[in-house]
Amino acid sequence: MRSSILFVLCCLSVHTLLADETKLTFTVDGVAYSNVTFGTVTPSSVTVFHSRGIVNLPLAKLPPELQKQLGYDAQKAAQYEASVQQAMQQAAAEQAKKELAQRAWQQLAAAERAKQELARQEAEKRVKQAVDEEQQKGEVERTKKLVQSNPVDLFSIFLKPEQQEHCGLYKLSQAERNSLAKICLALCSSSLGDSAVEYLKNEGWEEVKVLGTRRLKLHEWSVVEEYLIAEKGAWTYILEPRSSSSLRPGKYLGKMGSSSCEIINSNGDAVRFTTEDKR
């Protein structure tokens, strides 16, 4: 574009008067210029060196004798000005086009970077989720193996520090672990880890509600005696031996059968009973 403008200017016969060609004084728009030397001349203007500095003046405002000397032609001057204006407009349009293309490229690059960052975050999230799931699966498997090695007293896993760590109970305070072992609310305690709940379900232990003791006559030939009563779902169980100081009314874990059952007491021991179940 710059070369095009220079070509247009050259075609319009731009020329320069040397410093020794003329030295004179004249007035334009009330301003006097003395010791004048002409510089670059275009069809519409001239560069003037004078005693106070440099100025570019339109040829149309110079005295007639200077216009004639500098070859001023009003029609050619107008054509020249129109050509210069057109060249400037074209240059501005090209610059605006370049800036628009650059902004579009920058926006596209920013969008691509955002897309890549989102993909990276999603990939990290999937990897973390897979690792967490694998760790949880491993914890469940370790807990199952511990239970299989000691199936009678399941709550012993809460009493041994090395087993507490395998079950994830190290995250609880000592007071929370002691309370958990005593109250035996494995299926409904929100403090119990998922792995412990999983193995208890797999081993068939369920929540049992001990109601306390009642005086009952079980058979026509028997006398009225005191028995321990428990419930699981819609079933009521009459337990013998008739009482147990470690089974106060409350919720426990148990394996209930039609003729016998086991209930884990508040000390973590599995107590065996014979039962008579009733709807």
Write the layout of secondary structure elements.
Blueprint: H1 2-11, E1 15-16, E2 24-28, E3 31-41, E4 45-50, E5 53-58, H2 64-69, H3 74-149, H4 161-167, H5 174-183, H6 194-202, E6 206-216, E7 225-232, E8 235-240, E9 250-256, E10 260-264, E11 270-278
Antiparallel strand pairs: 1-3, 2-3, 3-4, 4-5, 6-7, 6-9, 7-8, 8-11, 9-10, 10-11
Helix pairs in contact: 1-3, 3-6
Mean pLDDT: 75
Secondary-structure element pattern, one letter each: HEEEEEHHHHHEEEEEE
Q: What is the rounded Rg?
A: 52 Å
Q: Got a strand count?
A: 11
Helix content: 40-55%
- Structural class comes to alpha+beta
**Strand fraction:** 25-35%
The 3D shape can be described as rod-shaped
Give the neighbour order of strands across the main sheet: 6-7-8-11-10-9
Number of helices: 6
Q: Which blocks of ≥5 consecutive residues have pLDDT under 50? A: 1-21, 150-158, 184-193
Largest sheet: 6 strands, antiparallel, barrel
Distance between the termini: 101 Å
What does the model show?
Among the domains are: 2-72, no CATH class; 205-279, no CATH class. It is built from 6 helices and 11 strands. It has helices at 2-11, 64-69, 74-149, 161-167, 174-183, 194-202; strands at 15-16, 24-28, 31-41, 45-50, 53-58, 206-216, 225-232, 235-240, 250-256, 260-264, 270-278. A hairpin with a 5-residue loop joins strand 10 and strand 11 (270-278). Helix 1 packs antiparallel against helix 3 (74-149) and helix 3 (74-149) packs across helix 6. The radius of gyration is 52 Å and the shape is rod-shaped. Residues 1-21, 150-158 and 184-193 have low confidence and may be disordered.
